[in-house]
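Deviations from the work plan: none for this task. Representative record:
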Amino acid sequence: RKEVEQDPGPFNVPEGATVAFNCTYSNSASQSFFWYRQDCRKEPKLLMSVYSSGNEDGRFTAQLNRASQYISLLIRDSKLSDSATYLCVVDANSGNTPLVFGKGTRLSVIA
Amino acid sequence: ETGVTQSPTHLIKTRGQQVTLRCSSQSGHNTVSWYQQALGQGPQFIFQYYREEENGRGNFPPRFSGLQFPNYSSELNVNALELDDSALYLCASSLGTGRETQYFGPGTRLLVL
């Protein structure tokens, strides 16, 4: 099992749609979880950290399920500007590698 | 903006050459991590420096080496370049272990011919 696996993309959705991304991780001892957003040919930028109790930031909601080793990101009322690649990031809880990035899921929001 | 800067922005080299990439971390951050991102892939961890010492390394050969300076800026050196080294090289700074939020620079796009 890969350390961090994400839904295969791309997701093509109309404006206003709700879209959900899933991510699974292999290390049950991982403690930190993040979603980053990466625009085409740009650097990744933190979208939100993921907390055990789940957290919401405007139209974005992140959930963590430790038992299933699963993280999700829900985007409501999609905007054209949400088009990007979304990277799931998990701490490896190992001395050598602090954070492990998934391959990313590409989202295209269409007018 | 994150305050993390990288230079150069783009670079073209040929196989066998050597390259040095530079990164200035965000003010107050003492940890710098380097990543390689190939097209269509997520960033792959190369190594991390904390207070001028390497304190973590991913699955990259020894020809990938680095330095961190007293002002916490950093260099990534790659010797004997191979075609597969063509990628976006990202530097990220953070405060502490590197397991917290990382702030990325804009990256250096390297093409090896």
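The first strand of chain A starts at residue 4 and ends at 6.
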